Amino acid sequence: MLAAKTLPISNRSFPEKTLEKSNPNLNSNFQFSLSTRKPKTHNFPFPTACLKTSVSVPPQDSQATVPESSPITPQTRVNIYSESLPFIQKFRGKTIVVKYGGAAMKSESLQSSVIADLVLLSCVGLRIVFVHGGGPEINHWLGRLGLKPNFLNGLRVTDSSTMEIVTMVLVGKVNKHLVSLINKAGATAIGLSGIDARLLTARPSPNSAELGFVGDIANVDPAILRPLIENNHIPVIASVAADEKGQSYNINADTAAGELAAALGAEKLILLTDVPGILEDKDDTGSLVKEIDIKGVKKMMDEGKIAGGMIPKVNCCVRSIAQGVRTASIIDGRLPHSLLLEILTDEGAGTMITGSSSKPGFSIKAILNVASAVAARPKPVA
What we know:
Pfam families: AA_kinase. By secondary structure, this protein is α/β, with parallel strands linked by helices. It has helices at about 45-50, 75-85, 85-90, 105, 110-125, 135-145, 160-185, 210, 225-230, 255-265, 295-300, 310-320, 340-345, 365-375; strands at about 95-100, 125-130, 150, 155, 190-195, 200-205, 215-220, 235-240, 240, 250, 270-275, 290-295, 325-330, 350-355.
């Protein structure tokens, strides 16, 4: 199933370029143990062979480039597949919700690696649900039509004309493009929006007077998704929803992914972002917090270490865990094959948030209190 004929990751030919800025959070020796996310010494370099492109961070002001991959022997390839077995067994048959956006959406090379990752994970039995926004594409089409994007506290001001363009771009263009790429790569994708089959029912946001048709999620009905994922199809969902009267709303894609993960009882929620993850020191990318529980999140919030654009992402993760999602990860989407790094290695590609805590008194109520505290904090201005 994992033969090179199906997904020839290691045989790709890349431009002979290297990236100058290395990621201080990753090294070349990733290991395979379900008991810890820390790297150990290992004989078979899974990421350095198959995922060699995952150890560098592309410059944010340019499209990602990846170094040339060295050929590997058939025996090494077999060893690599064997070493990934514990991870495949852990997640096989489980639902993984992935929110796609940021640099991974803007760079063609990163987009290709995300699509390849999705297809590989689907081939080995993971049930993938793919949720996307498309802010840069929306801004591009607003500009072409002579309209200026407006934001308030990090949220797009969406009047009726803008909402029409948002729907056309997300549902008609971005969604179908992603479906086409996944189908071309060998999986079977189905394009949907929150409007289809009342998948997401929207309600106006509390600031609707200032924001216009920006909505929150009032209800999730995942019935349309269950037969799709049970048959190994990949739903690709645009973050647009309608209220009970049929009015369309622009929904934050992180929020949509989190609520869908909760409704589906997903094993894992993954948010692809443009940052390494949660940092102990926001000015030091080497201070990545690899794994943290809810009480740790609350402590970092109280200390002001979780701030700015990380707040709504953490809120999304906390709410999903409160509703039954096992773990939620905020990962660096600038890393090629970041999804495989997160799921098939101990090292991961960002920060994993869990609901577990070794301290007494921990409860779901405590998680919801944290989510409320995060949600109440001011959002950043874009």
